[in-house]
Give the backbone structure.
Amino acid sequence: MASDNDKRKRRFAVVTAEDIERKISDRIPKNTKKNTSWSCRVWDSWALERNRDSVLTQTDIGYIPSSQELLDVSEESLVKYVVQFVVEARRVDGKPYPGDTLTQLCAGIQRHLRENGRPEVNFMDTSNRKYHQFHATLNAERKSLMSRGIGATRKQAEAITEAQEEKLWDIGQLSLNSAIGLSHAILFYSCKAFGLRGCEEHAKLEVDQFHFGEDEVGRYVTFIGRTNKTYQASMEQRNQRNKVVKHYADPANNRCVYNIFTAYLRLIPPVGKLYRRPLPDRGHGIQYSYLENVGKHKLERYVSEMMSAAGYTGHYTNHSIRATLATRLYQKGVDEQLIVSRTQHRSLAVREYKRTSSEQQQMVSKILDPPNRRSECPPKERHIEKTSEPLVAKKASKFCKRMDTVNTTYIDLRYVGVFKCLYRCTCTTTPSSHTT
């Protein structure tokens, strides 16, 4: 009995070695783990295919170790293998990888080595001369690929315009009056107002990360972030802070973010996951399940389904709304520091999310055009048609001091006014002898 009391009064936690290993593993984002696994699979496929060829195994490179066998390879041999991988790696269809993808593959191999007992390996460090051959090879391959147009275009999530956002409200995809519309609105404005990322971050959201308050400016909703892609609360980030964003209500806008969150949070349990499964409308108002959450894969499809329902085609994902946040503030002239306070981008990465509008591109085009002299009119589009009227030929002859014959006559506004006559003549004088 005494031991049971001691357990209840225990101050410090007791954990096993397995618990510690699990914590170490959990510190790595899932997408990073997926990227590392993918890199190892590509490496193993390349090694297996190459080792099957008896001719290739007799070359200087010889046998290619698998990703697991790489853990026991010397750094000198490691560089040799990675250099060969850079120039020989291909996609499943046999086409070359774009330069950025090739770089990601190499980074994934390095992560695999560092996470499995080889922390000294750092061939992605361009300042380390020990890996000069690898850097030179990767740069040469990237240049070669770009010169052939491979990787010249990047697939980016498209930002959502104000007109598109308004249409989503008009057709009920965003709404305060339906369960699914309000659920869509929570995801949409969690991204747009608070800069949340993809479905992984949304799936982890808890109700207690949102708080309401009021000060001398007005009412507001505060989002308190936790760990995310760029903030892991690590030792290196001990001088950084988690994201805390305060978003004020707009009394003149019934659809403001404050009203959206107050309406939704009144309808779900006060603790637990934020996204609850919307229930069908059976005449009892908006309802959500107290037991079931919206799955991660369903959250991942929210934006694409909304845009498809509105009739828009293109590459729309949850990142589209994050890009919309940076783009809208950028186009309105908001200072970059304020944009970063919402997106929590590191360094200049926020610029990758900014999208210039067509109007801004048009403005830049006008600025870079040649000077516009008002006395010079731009050439007008000609309407040409053939004629043989003597009167037109007579008018045309006024533009030439000497005309031997007029073979063909055309209509052109610039030379004969109302007759719109463009003449083709055989003349013994030089063009400079013509008068206009």
